[in-house]
Design a protein that fits this description.
Low-confidence stretches: 1-7, 330-342
Radius of gyration: 23 Å
Structural class: mainly alpha
Helix content: 55-70%
CATH topology: Rhopdopsin 7-helix transmembrane proteins
Number of domains: 1
Amino acid sequence: MESAHLKLHKNPFYPVTAETYGAYAVLIVAGLILSVGIIGNVSLMCIVCHNYYMRSISNSLLANLALWDFVVVFFCLPLVVFHELTKDWLLGEFSCRIIPYLEVASLGVTTFTLCALCIDRFRAANNVQNYYEMIENWVSTTAKLAVIWIGALLLALPELLIRQLVTEETDPPEVTTPCERCVIRISTDLPDTLYVLGLTYNGARLWWYFGCYFCLPTLFTIFSSLATAHKIRKAERNSVRGSKKQIQLESQMNCAVVALAILYGFCVIPENICNILSTYMAAGIPRRTLEILKLVSQLMLFCKSAVTPVLLFCLCQPFTRCHSRLQSDCRCCLAPSHNAPD
């Protein structure tokens, strides 16, 4: 009877079946996202940290976002891929709870960072003729970043209450180990207060997720960017020769913020679709289809974390220039540059 609990895991790559090609595709895509995400986010953090003239509040916000994106890609992506290939959670119930928590917290960090960037860009456009340059002291910068992190982490805490790891027998049961699934299910062992909190959050999760992590950053970025663009056009009409370069850089940064918001919205849409289908149409959709959609939505979130620094390197001239130097000398940004900070 004990031997029934000593079953072997199924090898996703052998023998070759239709599922094998899917396993290779997941592995290749995950490897690409992991490589780009680690290199891009580390490069972005290095550029901001090692160059005093890149330490504006906007660049500090972007470096903070890069740090969080690095954490999510480096720690969560391998665990998600491992589960997809083996149908087993590497760290058991801990990974079942912590991965959704970190993913939702990542959405919160991105949401609040986009809002903070929009506010800072509006201030910069409003003062562009005075050569706006917000290189703040470390106390002020740390306080702003702490608000973003604490807010995102606290808002994501209910995710830890609504997850459980369940084990299901596979078909045929003697071939592989029982399949472990991480499901939304509130434990009855929780204290009454936490149990009620979990029930309330679970009931409102769909629309809270959609409103806070999709509508808020999207609408806020649209209206703020339009107001900022109006200020930039006004500054262009009244500009003198010395301020034209600064106005151009402010316009680039405003476009970069809009591009980040578009990328974020595009990558979050699959997660919202998955939540809607799971809530209202789960009975009519095969479980495997929902699992594939959930995997795609997770990979899109990881893709957002990997592509964000690439967008900045392509759209922002100071980042592009310093990244080019970084490729030839990892300490290029130690030398002060007298170009505009943004």
